[in-house]
Amino acid sequence: MGDQNPRIIVEKNPSQARLDELKFKSWPKWGCSPGKYHLKYEAEEICYIVRGKVKVYPKPPSSSSSSSSDAEVEWCVEFGAGDIVTFPKGLSCTWDVSLSVDKHYIFLSS
Fold it and tell me: Where in this chain does the record put each (S)-ureidoglycine aminohydrolase cupin domain (predicted)?
């Protein structure tokens, strides 16, 4: 059974060892104010959320034959300050930012 949904992985309260291993302070920074943003990930991204609060609504893979009941279930992933989040390559999603976000991020080359 193929995994149709690319998964967003959220690590809550990562250990100091994990943070040291990532060396995220050397990564580029990005920030945004509250609002909705449509993003598409051309590469896998890991980010460390310095501040803010976000709900991400992934777009399901486009499939004309999907039943309407599936389409109506809108699931989201929530994360905020202190979390490490990994976004899979190929993901399209909407960021619903409730508190201004600052993050460090890095793209992983396959």
Answer: 20-105
